[in-house]
Specification:
The structure is a homotetramer.
Chain A: E1 2-5, H1 11-23, E2 27-32, E3 37-42, H2 47-54, E4 59-63, E5 83-85, E6 88-90, E7 96-100, H3 107-120, E8 124-126, H4 144-157, E9 161-164, H5 171-177, E10 180-183, H6 191-199, E11 204-207, H7 214-225, E12 232-236, H8 254-261, E13 266-268, H9 270-274, H10 277-289, E14 294-298, H11 316-332, H12 338-343
C-alpha cells in the first residue's frame, strides 16, 4: 500500500501518518518526489487500512499494490485447477460442454433434452429446479420435483448434472441430488450462500455478477475457497452495459484475464451472455478460441414453448449444428471436444 | 403487447401467430402498415409470452406496452404511501433523516453516535449488525450483539432504528429487534430474502441494486408487496457506471422518476452513492431538492478509525454542518426537517 | 509515478528500470516492501512514460500519482474563475440561467422564446444553428441564417447568446455572431475543434462527453486553456449508463467534484441530462443545490411541434414554474437567481 | 411507429392524435386492447415524429418499429459488401490482417515494422500520422511527414495502408496518400468529418464510438454511405464499461450482430479493445471465430520504447506467434489467412 501525500502537505501530517502506521504494527518508507511525498507501507496490510489512511490530514490518495484475493490467485497456486465431476474433468485437456434447458419443466421435456444433448456430444446436463425470476408473477421452477427429474435423467444417460441453488437453507437439499451447484449471477455477492455452498464440499460453479468487476468475482470465489472447497469453476455470462441489442455484453476478454490471474477453470455461457439464440454459436466459438475450458448452453425441445428464456435457447438441431462448428475450432486451439474422448 | 412482423413475413406466418394467440386464450388485432404488419395482442399478457412469440417464424420483435409491476405502481394506488415507524412518518409532510455508523462496532461508539445524531436533528438511527463484505477477510459485523446495542441506543434516545438483514434465516431474529429491515444493494434480487422480509410484517427499506434498472427495482418491490406488506420504502444509493472518481454514480433522476411511477416513499443515500465524505452534503441537498422523502447518512465518532466505510462517513461536526445547510433547502421545497417537528 | 515490481522480480530487472529512468533524465527511489519492491520515480514524468515502464520485464504495474491536467486544476489556480459575458458573470455570486430552443427554427419561434425566457428571468439565450444529429436523415439546423436570427434576438432583448459550433472551419463564422461558443458532447474529444475554439478568444462552454470520465473532461479543457483562453465554462449534461428510462444519467456528483478539482465554473443541463421535460425541474433544483453555477434549459413555444428534442423542452409556462421553484432553492444555497440582479 | 395511449386517455385525446397524423399526411390505425388503446401509424415516418407524438396529451409512449438506418441495412442490400483495396478484398473469402505501429515515429521504425508484418502474413499496413490524444501535452503524430513515410513503406513492401484522418480539412491531404481512411472512435459522431470522408471516394474504416450503440454506429455509417461511397468497413474496438482491468470491453457479440443487421464488412481491433498486449492474441482468435472479416493489430519494433500505446503493441515475435495461432482457427471457420492466398 502506498500513501500519496498532497503537494501542500505539512511535515507534521507526514509525521502523523508514520506514527499511525507504527501504532498499527507497520512501518512507513518515505520517498520524496519533485512534487509530492510518497510513503510506502511496509508490513501486512488489509483493505480497511486504505480508508483509515485516506481520512488522515494531508493524504491525497492511498493506492493498494497487492491484490486482495489470495486463494484464487495464480501467485498462491501456479498450476491450473482441474475439477473432476465423475469422469468429466473441467479445466483438463478437453473442453466440457454443459447443455440442457433453462428450467426443468417436465420429466418428458428433460429426458428428451438430456438424450439429445448427449447424442450431440455434451458431457454435463444443465437444468434449473429453483429459478430466480425478476418478477414474482412468473414461473419459478419445480423445486425438489425438478431435482428428482434431473437425477432420473442422470440415471438414464450417465450425464452428471449442474443446477442452481438460490438460498442457504436449500444447499443441503440441492447438494443431495446435484453433481455441481451453480451460484447464479444475482447471488454472486450473497456471501452467506457462498459460504454454505463452500461448506457442502460439492463442486461449485460461480457465475459472474452482471455488474461485478473481475476482482470482485475473485473475491467472491474466496468465500467458497476459504471453506476448504477447491472444486470451484468460474463462469462468464455477460455484463451489463449501455448496449441493449444484446441482453448482456459477453466479456470474452475476462476469459484470458482469469487465466492470467487465477488457477481456476472458466466456462462461458453464451446463452445468457447474449440472450439471442442466433448469437449463441458465434459466441461459443469465440469463447473457446479465447481459451475457455468449456461452454454452458441452453437447449430446449421447442424453444417457442419454453416457460423461460426461450429466446436464447437452441433447438436440438441448432445445438447439433453448434457442436459441428465447434469441433474444428476446439481442435485448432488444442482443446478437443468431449465427444472425441468417449470414442476412445 | 405488440407483435411486429418482419417486412418479408408471409401470410401463413401471420396466421400462425394469430392461431397461437387464440390457443392461449388471447386474440390478435391486425394492423397493416406501409412496410410491416403489426399485431396487437388483446387479453391479459405475461412476460413469458414475449419470448414465446419472438421465437415464431416471421416475427421481428415483440414489444410489451404495459408495465410488468403492479402493486408498486401509481396506476394501482394513486396516492403517496406514508410508512409510519413509531412517531416517524416516512413519505409524509416532513423529511426523514436516518443517521448513524456504517457498522455497530461497540456500545460506546454507537451510543455516542446516536446521541450526537439525535442532537443534530436525525429521527431514525442506522447501524449495521450484519455487514456484507466484498472480501471474506474483512470485518463482517457483531451479529446479534450489534442488534442488542442498537436496541439499547433506542431505549436511551427514543430513536427507532434501521438495520440490514442479509439472510432469509436471519429475518426473524433481526425483526425481533429492528424497527425497519434494510435490504442491501447486493440482495435486491435475492428473491427468497425479499419474500421473507415481506412476510415479517415489519417496515422494509429496499435499496436499489447497483446495476438494477428502475423497472427491475420496482419488480423486486413487488416481491415484498405481494406478501401483503405495504410498509415499503425505496432507497437510491448510486449505480455502477464507468466513472471511477466516485464509488458509484448517484442517480438523482431516479427520485422524481420513482415519484412518477410509484406511490412508494424514496430515501437517498449519498454516503454510498458517492463514497466520499465531502460529497455527502452536496448530494444530500441535491436529493432533497429533487424530491426525496429523506436521507440516510453515515456518521462516525472518528471516521479515520472506522472499521468500515470511513472514507464516506461524516464526523459529528460535519453532520451538524450538513443539517444546517439542509434546513433552508428543505424549507425551500416545502419538506421541512424533522427537528422542527419535535419543537411542536 | 510509482513502479510496482512483481513479487518474483529479479535484481537485474529492478536494475534495468533504474537504468532506464536515468537514461530519461529521471531517477528512481527504491522502497523494499514485505512482498514487493516499489520504485518511486523522481523528476518530471509524462503519460507515455507509464506505458514504457509497464512493458519492462519484472514490472507489475505503474501508478501515476500526479494528475495529468494542469491549467484547469485548483492546484494551478486556487480561486474560482468567473467568466464575464457582457454584464453576465458565470461563476460569480449569482446563478446564470441559459434558456431557449434546442434549434433555431424560425425568426418568429426564436423571438417569442427569447422574450418569454427573459421575462421569466433567464439571462442568456441558447439556440442551435448547427445541430449534430445521430441520423443524416433529420433536421440539422439553419446554419448562418440561424446565427443571424440569434443576433436579432440579442438586439431585441439584450440577452447574450450561446450556440454550438461543430467544425473547426466554422469557428470563425460562429465566433463572429455568438457571445459564447458551445462544444457539444459528441465533440468533447474533437481536439482540433477544441484548439480552434480556444484560439477564437471567445468564451467557450465545454459539455462533458457522454462517456467521458471527469479526468478526460478536464484534459479536454486543457486543449482550450492551453491556447491562452481562460474564459471556459464546463457543462454537465448526463452520462451514458445501463439505465434506459432517462436519456442519460445526470451525474449530479460531478458538480461538487469539479468544484473540488478545478477553478472553472460549471453549468448543469437537465434537459439533455434527463431527456424528459417533467424531470427538468427536479434536476435543475438538484444541480443548483449541489453547487452548480447555473443551468441551461430547453424552452420552446410548442414542444409538441419542435423539430428537435421536443420531449425534453419546457413550455413558457413550465419554464416559468421552474423559475418560481428555483428561486427559493437558489436563495437557500446562497446563489440567488439573475432576475434579482436586474432589479438593482 | 406505434402510439400507446395511457390507460386513462380520453376519446378526444385519441382523436387529436389521429387528426395530427392526418395533418402530417399519415394515417392512424386504431387498436383497442383490454387495458390500452394503441394507434399504428401508417405512412412514411421519421425520427422527429416520435418526439412530437410523445408530447401529446394522453400519449404514454411512442415505439418506432422500423429501423432508422437504411443504406447500411441487410434489408436494403442482402448480399455482403466486399471492399477492394488494391488486390486485397475486405469482406471476401479470406481474412484481412492489418498490422503496424500505433503511430509512425520514424522512417526506420515504420519500414522495419512494415517488412516484419508482411513477412508474418499481414496484407494491409496500419500507422498513425495524425494522432488523437486525450491530453494536449503528449505526442500527436508526424502529420504529412508520417503520410510520406507510409507511402514509402507501401512502395517498398507492396502493402496498401490505412491511416486515421481527424479533421474535415485534412481529408483531401490524407486521401492523396492513403489507401483507406480511418475514422477513429472519438470521431464516430463527428458528422462533418464523416461526410467529408464519404465524399473523398476512398475506402473508409469507421471505428465504433466507445460508447456508441450498434444502432448509432450504423447511423453514422449512413453519413458516409449517403455520400455515394459504398467502400465502407466497420471496426469493433471495444466499448466503455465499468470493468477497469481492460482498457475497454471488446464487444465480440457486435460482430455477429453486424453480420445480421448489415451487409458491411467488419474488422476487429483487439489492441484497443483490450489495451494489454497479452490479451491481443486471445481476442483476435475470438473475433475471427465469431465471424470477423479481419483484424487490425498494433505491432512495434520495441513496444517498451513506443511513443504511444506501447502496452498494447505486439513485438515482431509475438505478432508471428499470433499469426501461427490464428491460422488454424481461421481455417476452422472457413476464412483462411491472407498469407495462403499469396502462395498460390
Amino acid at each position: 500500500m502506498i500513501v500519496v501525500m498532497r503537494s501542500d502537505s505539512k511535515e507534521e501530517e507526514i509525521g502523523s501518518v508514520l506514527d499511525r502506521l507504527k501504532e498499527l504494527g507497520l512501518s512507513g518508507h518515505l520517498s520524496q518526489g519533485t512534487e509530492r511525498t510518497v510513503i510506502g507501507v511496509v508490513g501486512s496490510t488489509y483493505p480497511e487500512l486504505r480508508e483509515m489512511l485516506e481520512m488522515m490530514p494531508g493524504v491525497d490518495d492511498v493506492i493498494p499494490i497487492s491484490r486482495p484475493y489470495k486463494l484464487s490467485s495464480r501467485e498462491f497456486k501456479p498450476y491450473d485447477t482441474v475439477v473432476k465431476v465423475g469422469d468429466v474433468e473441467i479445466g483438463g485437456d478437453r473442453l466440457v460442454v454443459m447443455a440442457g434447458p433453462c428450467a426443468v419443466e417436465s420429466e418428458e421435456q428433460l429426458l428428451r433434452t438430456a438424450r439429445a444433448v448427449k447424442a450431440a456430444g455434451a458431457n454435463v446436463l444443465r437444468g434449473g429446479a429453483f429459478k430466480p425470476s425478476t418478477s414474482p408473477y412468473t414461473f419459478r421452477g419445480l423445486g425438489e420435483e425438478g431435482l428428482k427429474i434431473l437425477a432420473e435423467a442422470r440415471g438414464q444417460t450417465g450425464l452428471p448434472f449442474i443446477t442452481e441453488v438460490m438460498a442457504p437453507q436449500d444447499v443441503e437439499l440441492v447438494a443431495r441430488y446435484a453433481d455441481v451447484l451453480q451460484i447464479g449471477t444475482r447471488n454472486m455477492q450473497n456471501f452467506i450462500l457462498l459460504e454454505e455452498a463452500g461448506r457442502s464440499g460439492k463442486p461449485v460453479m460461480l457465475k459472474r455478477g452482471m455488474s461485478a468487476t473481475i476482482q470482485e468475482w475473485l473475491l467472491s470465489a474466496e468465500y467458497i475457497l476459504s471453506q476448504g472447497n477447491n472444486r470451484l469453476i468460474l463462469c462468464e455470462r455477460g455484463i451489463r452495459t449501455f448496449e441493449t441489442y444484446t441482453r448482456n455484453t459477453m466479456d470474452v476478454s475476462a476469459i484470458p484475464v482469469i487465466k492470467k490471474l487465477s488457477h481456476l477453470p472458466i466456462v462461458a455461457d453464451p446463452s445468457h451472455g447474449t440472450g439471442k439464440w442466433y448469437l449463441v454459436a458465434p459466441l461459443a466459438l469465440a469463447s473457446v478460441a479465447a481459451g475457455a475450458d468449456g461452454i454452458i448452453v441452453e437447449v430446449h425441445p421447442s424453444p417457442d414453448q419454453a416457460l423461460k428464456d426461450g429466446a436464447q435457447s437452441l433447438t436440438f438441431e441448432s445445438f447439433g449444428a453448434l457442436m459441428a462448428k465447434l469441433a474444428p475450432v476446439a481442435e485448432a486451439v488444442g482443446r478437443p471436444l468431449p465427444a472425441a474422448l468417449e470414442v476412445r
